[in-house]
């Protein structure tokens, strides 16, 4: 018996016909919407050559788009490294047997998951000056990195915790049976298997982090979106074409990141076997929502 027939009923001729008709209708609707959008842009003159001509100039790319892309990648890379460290520390902290570690770690994670990232970036930049009464200037780069680290690190903490808990309890019991301490069980047995299960969720969060660097635009951080929706349109009056080009750049770098992630995941699964099921990145929640502070407290 095939795997497909075990997981679901194989559609018959009438069901296949119905599915094909629905697929065709959906494609027609999507193409129709796309046509209306393109037609509307054309009627507004958004495809005029003078609006797109600036993107054929080398100075626009070397002087604005590429510097913005570099600033975006710099903020994303540093934030990703710090968020992974933050997530590992507080994710493992939530698995501690000691309540004085587990409970504060849970509150920190839930607190930063509950705050919208944009408010967090504003808070990081403007709170020191407001609280101290002095002119304390927090650089836009630092505010963006700290905000991204705290928010995405709290999400990754839940990914790490869920990844470790996804490993069957028998794995840790076997480690204890051969004389390993908890640290050894975590380092030698649980984390290597959990890493494979966590990889899709971690990469998904990294893509979100990369796109969230665009929020630096509102505090004048000169990243890709700042150049694409502010500086280039200010010079050439081509907001829509600029937004389309910048969107394509974001899509390209996210596709590269996704390709690298798939290769890493496949290599990781070939290198080691795991009994843990893949985990999903949790969504932002309100304080007190979702998992409780003591969830996963009795970490194996």
From TrEMBL:
One Pfam family it belongs to: BPD_transp_1
Cell compartments where the protein resides: Cell membrane
UniProt topology in membrane: Multi-pass membrane protein
Superkingdom in the source lineage: Bacteria
Domain named ABC transmembrane type-1: residues: 69-257
Keywords noted in UniProt: Cell membrane, Membrane, Transmembrane, Transmembrane helix, Transport
Entry-linked InterPro entries: AA_ABC_transptr_permease_3TM, ArtM/GltK/GlnP/TcyL/YhdX-like, MetI-like, MetI-like_sf
TM region positions: 21-42, 65-90, 111-128, 140-167, 188-208, 239-262
Family listed: Belongs to the binding-protein-dependent transport system permease family.
Cited PANTHER family: AMINO ACID ABC TRANSPORTER PERMEASE, MEMBRANE COMPONENT OF AMINO ACID ABC TRANSPORTER
Protein name: Amino acid ABC transporter permease
Gene source species: Sphaerisporangium aureirubrum
């Amino acid at each position: 018996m095939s795997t497909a027939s075990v997981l679901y009923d194989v559609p018959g001729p009438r069901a296949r016909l119905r599915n094909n008709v629905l697929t065709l209708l959906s494609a027609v609707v999507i193409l129709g919407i796309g046509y209306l959008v393109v037609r509307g842009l054309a009627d507004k003159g958004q495809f005029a050559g003078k609006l797109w001509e600036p993107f054929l100039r080398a100075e626009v790319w070397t002087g604005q788009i590429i510097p913005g892309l570099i600033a975006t990648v710099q903020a994303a890379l540093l934030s990703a490294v710090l968020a992974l460290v933050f997530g590992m520390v507080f994710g493992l902290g939530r698995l501690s047997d000691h309540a004085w570690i587990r409970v504060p770690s849970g509150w920190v994670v839930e607190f930063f998951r509950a705050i919208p990232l944009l408010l967090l970036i504003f808070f990081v930049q403007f709170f020191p000056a407001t609280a101290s009464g002095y002119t304390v200037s927090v650089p836009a780069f630092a505010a963006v990195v700290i905000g991204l680290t705290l928010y995405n690190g709290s999400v990754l903490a839940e990914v790490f915790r869920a990844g470790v808990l996804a490993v069957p309890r028998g794995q840790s019991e076997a480690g204890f049976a051969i004389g390993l301490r908890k640290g050894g069980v975590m380092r030698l047995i649980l984390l290597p298997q959990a890493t494979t299960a966590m990889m899709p969720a971690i990469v998904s969060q990294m893509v979100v982090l990369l796109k969230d660097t665009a929020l630096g635009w509102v505090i004048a951080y000169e990243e890709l979106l700042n150049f694409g929706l502010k500086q280039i349109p200010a010079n050439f009056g081509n907001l829509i074409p600029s937004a389309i080009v910048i969107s394509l750049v974001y899509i390209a770098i996210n596709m590269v990141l996704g390709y690298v992630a798939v290769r890493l995941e496949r290599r990781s699964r070939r290198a080691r076997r795991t009994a843990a099921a893949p985990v999903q990145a949790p969504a932002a929640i309100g304080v007190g929502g979702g998992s409780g502070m003591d969830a996963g407290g009795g970490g194996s």
